[in-house]
Amino acid sequence: ATLSEMNDIMPPSAATDSSAAPRWRLLTLLFFMIFLLGGYLRVAAVLETDVNNSIRADAKDYFSYAYNLRHFGVYSRSDHPVKSGETSPPVPDALRPPGYPLMLSLFTNGRPTTMMLTSILLTQAVLGTLMLLLAHGIYRRFLPETWALIASLLTALSPHLVVINTYVLS
Question: Which residue of 29, 88, 154, 156 shows the fewest CB atoms closer than 10 Å?
Answer without folding.
Answer: 88
